[in-house]
């Protein structure tokens, strides 16, 4: 059974993202997204809470979040929320670089968005605080500040030691040109690394 996968990206990169999203290897997966095109996204922006509700619904039932990354993805307000909701869910993560993908002008390579989010285990190891980079330091992430590991169910190693950038526990990062050759197996690896059972 295919895993449910959530795609997170900056809408400025939508042309390149659609090449990834519409590829045969991705179409074979059960991909969930809050918006099928930019027009729905723009309409939702005019409704208070609509984007959050759409993201919440789309992340629900997934086990892996694929962060499709261009130059400015790391600072996207909604990408950070999607990452936080994915943490609350207990998802695994894959960062997919798309620099040079798609019609001109193609996206440039950008920083890893998982470097800009931090997980801080609670003292009793029953949950974790979520933090974000504000340009000079990590601060509490106000939209979703704490998650219970009773829900996330991350393995014990995720809740040991001090706070850490997400990229330290979710190191899978690859350019799309290489990743497309083994996308399904990488999805499975990301899910298992996060504690999900095979094909769950």
Automatic annotation (TrEMBL):
Domain spans labelled Thoeris protein ThsB TIR-like: 6-100
InterPro entries membership: ThsB__TIR-like_domain (IPR015032), ThsB_TIR-like_sf (IPR036490), Toll_tir_struct_dom_sf (IPR035897)
| The protein's name | MTH538 TIR-like domain
This protein's species is: Enhydrobacter aerosaccus
């Amino acid at each position: 059974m295919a895993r449910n996968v959530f795609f997170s990206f900056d809408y400025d990169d939508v042309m390149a993202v659609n090449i990834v999203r519409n590829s045969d290897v991705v179409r074979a997966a059960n991909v969930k997204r809050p918006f099928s095109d930019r027009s729905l996204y723009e309409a939702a922006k005019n409704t208070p809470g609509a984007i959050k509700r759409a993201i919440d619904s789309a992340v629900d039932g997934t086990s892996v979040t694929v962060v499709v990354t261009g130059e400015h993805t790391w600072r996207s307000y909604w990408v950070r929320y999607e990452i936080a909701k994915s943490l609350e869910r207990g998802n695994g993560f894959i960062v997919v670089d798309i620099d040079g993908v798609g019609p001109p002008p193609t996206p440039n390579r950008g920083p890893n968005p998982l470097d800009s989010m931090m997980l801080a285990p609670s003292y009793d190891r029953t949950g974790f605080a979520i933090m974000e980079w504000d340009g000079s330091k990590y601060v509490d992430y106000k939209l979703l500040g704490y998650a219970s590991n009773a829900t996330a169910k991350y393995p014990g190693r995720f809740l040991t030691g001090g706070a850490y950038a997400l990229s330290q526990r979710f190191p899978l990062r690859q350019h799309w040109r290489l990743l497309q050759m083994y996308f399904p197996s990488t999805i499975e690896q990301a899910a298992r690394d996060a504690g999900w059972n095979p094909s769950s």
